[in-house]
Amino acid sequence: MDAYWAACARGELVIQRCTACGRRVHLPAAACPWCGGDDLPFEPVGGEGVVHTFTVVHRSFVGEFMGREPYVLAWVDLAEGARVLGQVVECAPERVRIGMPVRVTFRDELPQWRPA
């Protein structure tokens, strides 16, 4: 998991790939959820995808996000085949749509998504 956060700090998005079955794994894990393999090196990905689904948060119970409402959390399907979670930024919540092309950006060393 340290490799994931180190890459984020460099402004690079990395995703694990199971060497046993070849599937992408995200969120970072110790074992592949599909085959149980435990060799999951991190590989850089392009950072482009489309919004799979999303929700607009109007009332947050997480201290760091309180007062920032409304904000959008989305599952994003990457071109490489992984589905990742993150906040959609640089876009009004009412403009976010399923299928919207997005690109990774980093804020406070966290991967987030902006319209492509």
Describe the protein in words.
β5 (71-78) and β6 (83-88) form a beta hairpin. The protein has one helix at 2-9, and strands at 14-17, 24-25, 42-44, 48-57, 71-78, 83-88, 101-107, 110-115. The strands form two sheets. A five-stranded antiparallel sheet has the order 6-5-4-7-8. 20% of the residues are buried. The model has no long low-confidence stretch (mean pLDDT 94). With 116 residues, it is mainly beta. The longest helix has 8 residues, at 2-9. It has one helix and eight strands, in the order αββββββββ. The two termini are 27 Å apart. The protein has two domains: 1-44, no CATH class; 47-116, OB fold (Dihydrolipoamide Acetyltransferase, E2P) (Beta Barrel).
Break the fold down into its secondary structure elements and pairings:
Blueprint: H1 2-9, E1 14-17, E2 24-25, E3 42-44, E4 48-57, E5 71-78, E6 83-88, E7 101-107, E8 110-115
Antiparallel strand pairs: 1-2, 1-3, 4-5, 4-7, 5-6, 7-8
